[in-house]
TrEMBL record:
Signal peptide: none annotated. One of its GO terms (molecular function) is DNA binding. This is HTH-type transcriptional repressor YvoA. The lineage of its organism: Bacteria, Bacillati, Bacillota, Clostridia, Eubacteriales. InterPro entries: Bact_HTH_transcr_reg, Chorismate_lyase_/UTRA_dom_sf, Tscrpt_reg_HTH_GntR, UTRA, WH-like_DNA-bd_sf, WH_DNA-bd_sf. It comes from the Bacteria. It holds the Pfam family UTRA. It comes from Caproiciproducens galactitolivorans.
């Protein structure tokens, strides 16, 4: 017989169902009445268990409807240069990338202006879909100058970060990068790839990475807004006591 309080036992039981995906994300949990009958406990016990799960950010409640499983959200700190793949690896989150397309091209006028490139320079264009815990999370479209990176083994980028691959093969050392964030609503193709509703907001990221003052990477990413949070710590340099 367990020495745990009944509400804690029920909490642990529901949590196992959530972690095993038997109760899927945004899925409606059984009603309080149903749980009372299923587990032979009082309504106050059920409410204590659900309150603890809500306190742990595992569930959320919509008044008049019921309690739902809260989606897991991944957090990215913006205090230093990062790659999505490396960030997930550090959090011990399983990941993989799926290559959607690859080609070499000479940029058109608008892309050449963005890259500040000679229109005779050839670029690799690599489009990948990044998964975390089997959730499609990010669509990445990357442009790399062929005169810096002669050949790209696209298959090698499915199991590791692009930066790790380029560093190992070509000695890439990014010294700085600029990145912009713009909220968007996904188009139909993005919705299909990310498995989301058109009503789910996303973030569009544009990154320009430099090595010795030269642009060596331009990536445009679409990131699920319901799955990824960006965090930055702000220091007040003017704060005086």
């Amino acid at each position: 017989m367990s020495n745990l309080p009944l509400y804690q036992e029920l909490h642990d039981h529901i949590l196992r169902y959530i972690n095993s995906h038997e109760y899927p994300e945004n899925g409606l949990l059984p009603s309080e009445r149903d749980m009372c009958q299923m587990y032979k406990v009082s309504r106050s016990t059920v409410r204590q268990a659900l309150a603890l799960l809500e306190e742990e950010n595992m569930v959320y409640t919509i008044h008049g409807i019921g309690t739902f499983v809260k989606p897991k959200v991944f957090e990215q700190n913006l205090s230093q240069f990062y790659s999505f793949t490396d960030a997930l690896k550090k959090m011990n989150i399983s990941f993989y990338n799926r290559v959607l397309s690859y080609e070499t091209l000479i940029p058109g006028r608008s892309l050449a202006l963005k890259l500040k490139a000679d229109r005779k320079v050839t670029y690799h264009k690599l489009v990948r879909l990044c998964f975390a815990r089997d959730y499609p999370l990010i669509i990445e479209t990357t442009y790399l100058p062929k005169n810096r990176f002669v050949h790209i083994d696209v298959n090698a980028t499915e199991s590791q970060s692009l930066y790790d691959y380029l560093s190992a093969k070509y000695g890439l050392k990014v010294d700085h990068a600029t990145e912009t964030f713009v909220p968007i609503l996904p188009d139909s193709e993005q919705c299909e790839l990310l498995k989301i509703s058109p009503r789910i907001p996303c973030l569009q990221l544009e990154r320009f990475s430099y090595e010795d003052g030269c642009l060596v990477e331009y990536t445009s990413s679409v990131v699920r807004g319901d799955k990824y949070v960006f965090k930055i710590e702000l220091n007040n340099q003017n704060n005086q006591k």
